[in-house]
Amino acid sequence: MNPDAVLAAGAVCWRKIDGQIHVLVIHREDRRDISLPKGKLDKGESLPQTAVREIKEETGLSVSLGLPLGVTHYTMPSGKPKEVHYWAAHVTAKAIAKSTFKPNGEVAALEWLPIDKARRELHYDADREILDLFTSYANQGVSETFAVILLRHAKAQDPSKFDGPDRDRPLTGRGEKQAAQIAPALAAFGPKKLVSSVSLRCQQTIAPLANLIDEDVRFVDEISQHAFVDDHPAVRAIVGKRVRRGKTSVLCSHGPVIPELLRELALATGTALVTDHSRAANLDTASFSVFHLNAKHPSAGIVAVETHDSLI
């Protein structure tokens, strides 16, 4: 990521109409063009958060992010470099019914088009490149996905300075801020199930997300660090259940445990682990990795992985 670049995020929003995939393009009034929905990062935002917010503002649609579709790079008229990060986003019938879009000074109209026609209508090569990657996934039957998200707890008090059981060690002030900051980034992927280690630092890390999306958390001992160190029963059943359910989930755990969670995810999905997967399990505090799976064939292996760090 270029530290001098203007950052933005967007998505290929898609749904099926009469059994055929259509994608959403926007007609921008001020620029007289047709493009994919996207917009600039606000201060303090993560890129996934930006993508979801901008889609809501430009199209009136509430979406959750799916597969990452890459980054476009170009130079703005001002001469500054710009990076736009994209995801796929399945638009549900419920989201369509609740759309709040009205034509305005920025976006004059929305249009759902078959992929081939959308490619012809888009004004910019960069947008077409992103659509081409989505098309490649769709042609492989990997448009509809869900994710298993592995989250490491936020910054906790130094164990050498904490007088009490390790499982009761709380977050620091910085850790509390990290937990609050990452909640919207996690929420952007639409998690439906939250699972956490029983350790207090994990409970405190996942609490802001649970409050934001109004979901309960299942606290389990099996993915806590003390259970891992003590060689308690494996986490296979927990990870396997999340894969079988086929709904995006977040598992909040500890640095030494997360590589084991990844190994179990690989076993549950028939994935041959490669270096990128292993790197994604080596997380800093309050960082998380999103492992995307084919909703129809999760045993076909991990389709894509992305890692997001805390901004604090």
UniProtKB/TrEMBL annotation:
Pfam families: His_Phos_1, NUDIX. Keywords: Hydrolase. Residues 4-135 form the Nudix hydrolase domain. One of its GO terms (biological process) is AMP biosynthetic process. The keyword ATP-binding does not apply. InterPro entries: His_Pase_superF_clade-1 (IPR013078), His_PPase_superfam (IPR029033), NUDIX_hydrolase-like_dom_sf (IPR015797), NUDIX_hydrolase_CS (IPR020084), NUDIX_hydrolase_dom (IPR000086), Nudix_hydrolase_domain (IPR051325). The keyword Translocase does not apply. SMART domains: PGAM (SM00855). GO terms for molecular function: bis(5'-nucleosyl)-tetraphosphatase (asymmetrical) activity. This is Unannotated protein. It comes from freshwater metagenome.
